[in-house]
Amino acid sequence: MKTPVPDYLNHVLSQCNLNDSGALADYIPELANADPNKLALALSTVDGTVYTTGDDDVEFTIQSMSKPFAYALAIQHLGLEKVLQKVGVEPSGEAFNQISLDAKTKLPKNPMINSGAITTHSLIPHDDQISRAEHLRRFLSELAGRELSFDEQVYASELKTAFRNLSIGYMLRTVGVLDEDPVDVVNGYIRQCAIKVTVKDLANITSVLANGGIQAKTGKQLLDRGIVRQVLSVMMTCGMYDAAGDWLSTVGIPAKSGVAGGIIGVLPGQVGIAVFSPKLDEHGNSARGIQIFERLSNDMGLHLMEGTPSAQTIVQRRYSPQQDDSIVIYELVGALQFAEAEMLLRIVQEEPNGNNTIIFDLNNLSLMNDVGRRMLIEGIDRLIEDGHEVVVVDPDYLIEQELTDRGQVMTIYRHLDDFLSKLSGLTKSE
Ligand code: DON
């Protein structure tokens, strides 16, 4: 059996190939030389698997898709609070290159429009050896899993016509958001936009965001979870500029576009998506790219607001080995997050007080998030206070403590059989 996913992606691509709408960006002269027919799609999963189709080895400049990563580096370097003192998080409802500031705060409205992105570029760490753009190139290379390079031609071309971005830079310097030479900062920002990528690179990069900042293949935490959450939030509300509301309602995936024709999208916990097709709509977003995202979102149920119904049950089985009612095993299944933890504790509260042994078997749990863990441990504390002994079967080290938060002992076994064999004469009943 061959997985149908590549066939499906091919099918979507060939249908969207028929769409000939849009126009090449020409305010950066070099981008007007792009081949308008190029079309590529890549999809990554949180375990780092990448499917690609179409012109998947064509390199193009990252442009505004660099902005979320500059923002991430700025937060990693300075902390969110300091970054928020320079750039807001409100959607602007304006074009990406609007020469504007928030009327009240006198700050750029968000880090996805050019005024905010030029500001966040200035917050990336740098020194005499490593420029800010180079810092970002190295970071994106690590996320992509290969050494990326700059497109010197596109960089030089954009520098020649960067009048609007220079105006923005001078405006930011005038109000004190920038406190250094605005020309240097704008040049650095334009260089950051000239990093070359393929859709495969972008899929690798977005896979890390979809996976809470962890690169599955190396196991490295490349970005803190909190930073990923912040970055995806501004992508959701501001990533598609003045089309953000339309995008949220029709596609519902945090995304960012670039004027070279790329769009990236990240559905947390599920997939990263990257498309490339150079012709743009009136908002400066890839016309075919938007169509592909709409298709994928509809076909695959990827709209964030569709949510994932939580499991019908978290307790797969409640049983007592060899009908010994003093031992009760809760065999848990699926993901233990808030909704499932609430369900579990509601079920377990029916246990009468006493001195039974309550066992939570986590063997079939696929995931336990922080609140799931904290609620389970709080429940365990309460069971112990009710007079029970509590045992946790935790083969995957989901619980990293042997004492509860109130210092009570919960016995941890890696296998249920290890516990059962300790009980004289008892074996697991089926
Ligand atoms: O600053 C600019 O105008 C370009 N380097 C990037 C703009 C961009 O990608 C807008 N997004 N669709």
Automatic annotation (TrEMBL):
Gene3D superfamilies for the chain: DD-peptidase/beta-lactamase superfamily, STAS domain
Reaction(s) catalysed (UniProt annotation): L-glutamine + H2O = L-glutamate + NH4(+)
EC number: 3.5.1.2
Gene Ontology molecular function: any one: glutaminase activity
Chain sites annotated for binding substrate: 64, 114, 158, 165, 189, 241, 259
GO biological process terms held by the UniProt record: glutamate biosynthetic process; L-glutamine catabolic process
Pfam families: Glutaminase, STAS
Residue ranges of domain STAS in the record: 317-407
Record's keyword terms, sorted: Acetylation, Hydrolase
Complexes and interactors: Homotetramer.
UniProt family annotation: Belongs to the glutaminase family.
The name this protein goes by in its record: Glutaminase
Originating species: Acinetobacter shaoyimingii
Lineage: Bacteria, Pseudomonadati, Pseudomonadota, Gammaproteobacteria, Moraxellales
